[in-house]
Amino acid sequence: xxxxxxxxxxxxxxxxxxxxxxxxxxxxxxxxxxxxxxxxxxxxxxxxxxxxxxxxxxxxxxxxxxxxxxxxxxxxxxxxxxxxxxxxxxxxxxxxxxxxxxxxxxxxxxxxxxxxxxxxxxxxxxxxxxxxxxxxxxxxxxxxxxxxxxxxxxxxxxxxxxxxxxxxxxxxxxxxxxxxxxxxxxxxxxxxxxxxxxxxxxxxxxxxxxxxxxxxxxxxxxxxxxxxxxxxxxxxxxxxxxxxxxxxxxxxxxxxxxxxxxxxxxxxxxxxxxxxxxxxxxxxxxxxxxxxxxxxxxxxxxxxxxxxxxxxxxxxxxxxxxxxxxxxxxxxxxxxxxxxxxxxxxxxxxxxxxxxxx
Length: 358
Description:
Helix 4 runs antiparallel to helix 6 and helix 7 (146-168) packs antiparallel against helix 10. The protein has helices at residues 9-28, 38-49, 53-65, 72-105, 109-117, 125-142, 146-168, 170-175, 178-189, 198-210, 217-240, 247-252, 263-278, 287-298, 300-314, 326-348, 352-357. The mean pLDDT is 88. The chain starts with 8 loop residues before the first helix and ends with a helix. The chain is mainly α. The protein is 73% helix and 0% strand.
């Protein structure tokens, strides 16, 4: 199991950053500002800036999981049940928090059940991860050879970008010859879903690790800059002109597979992943800070499962726009949520069943 491996510092640092980013998205990306205002730019900058979190989580899981062959037995008896157990713990935590909320506010049973159902923010990611784990024995066969892994990723591009562009977007269909449209429709009827979505990101994490020794620090930094500017620029454009249906709609947001496999967010997420793997890897922290990073990284899953509860319980009591800069407000508020969730995880980690699962 991953928790038994030696901690990898750059992985823990990226996990911590991505977990903070998820809390930022769920805790502060719930406001609207007039387009072109200073707060609007701040809101978009930090909101779009942390959209890499879920793709990076999947890339990290693929990078760590696919380094050795995975058996069907371990998948069915250990890996997937562990994810299911995390979901059950999340439900119990939300249920307990909902009951406590009901007692404090004097609500009836219906009210606290309804409240509980809204507190598991983001935990649907566990089902995505479980899906990747279910097919990981097959993915291990695919990645045995570099060419077959590259072919898998090429297929993911075809079914994540090319097919949706021709099959779903009216302005693309109307501009293309009928013969091409029929070919794309025929491919789409095949419903080849395995190379797309979460599994593509899962395999991409392994592939980037495979070629990391060929990537220089300068290349990694340049890749990050290009990925960031491409994603932020396209996102601001689509936010400023939400009614316009252009090619940026395809590049920025995915089909029914979900927006996390769209080309530009995948590009940006991969650039963040590569930067940490190539550049941050060689940064050595002081011993005490390194120990804290390792513990935060180990507890990041619990923090992730707790963040919805913390946000819903605490946000009503935090003043909105208490400082002029929305960017500063977000950093302070989200760090506050993060530290509370971490504090709760320090208690939960001593519960035997929780300790065993996490």
